[in-house]
């Protein structure tokens, strides 16, 4: 299935669409950094909108999805559909880094 190793440093100008190995150590590091950045940005947004309960619920759900995706990276299952075990696809993950299902399956 997935690689269990995460690269220590991303090559300059790394592009996951050009990586020939699905969920390579570089690709895992790329998505880990992307998810961590999303988490950080949502901390800032949450401070600005702390009185909006609807927004807080969305923030909580997204934070939970980000944390779960980071766990999947550590476990080696990130990038693979939880229902089928098949690759989710780089393009879909670039649009939705927290995705845990293939866009082609019916839930």
Distance between the termini: 22 Å
- Average pLDDT rating: 85
Q: Report the count of strand segments.
A: 0
Give the CATH architecture: Up-down Bundle
Q: What percent of residues are in strands?
A: under 5%
Structural class: mainly alpha
Query: Structurally, how many domains make up the residues?
Result: 1
The CATH H-level homologous superfamily: DksA, coiled-coil domain
Rg computed from alpha carbons, rounded to a whole number of angstroms: 15 Å
Shape: globular
Order of SSEs: HHH
In which range does the helix fraction lie? 40-55%
CATH class descriptor:
Mainly Alpha
Stated plainly, the CATH topology is called Four Helix Bundle (Hemerythrin (Met), subunit A)
Write up what this structure looks like:
With 107 residues, the protein is mainly α. It has a single domain (21-95), classed as DksA, coiled-coil domain (Four Helix Bundle (Hemerythrin (Met), subunit A), Up-down Bundle), CATH 1.20.120. It has 3 helices and no strands. The longest helix is centred in the middle third of the chain and has 24 residues, at 25-48. The radius of gyration is 15 Å and the shape is globular.
